[in-house]
Write a structure and sequence with these properties.
Length: about 100
Amino acid sequence: MLEIRPTCEHCNKSLPNDSEEAMICTFECTFCKNCVDTILQNVCPNCGGGFTERPTRPSHLLNTYPVSTKVVHKPLVEETFKKLLDTFRDIDSRER
């Protein structure tokens, strides 16, 4: 089951369950759409994978299966990320 993390790992923007801006990689690293598009260029800084829109948890299940309150805030060090970005940015995420 997805954690549905509450914020962007880079900019710490709030990404509630119903956010249309939440993006995740296959390991559930969570970033806002703006960071994915403008800074990360669809390359996860943690695993090198690509991103997809995060689904929402149906509201009737939130009491039984609440979303995570765990904030993962690891602002990107762009100099460190540059090598990973240069390696993967031009390769389709399904082929990395």
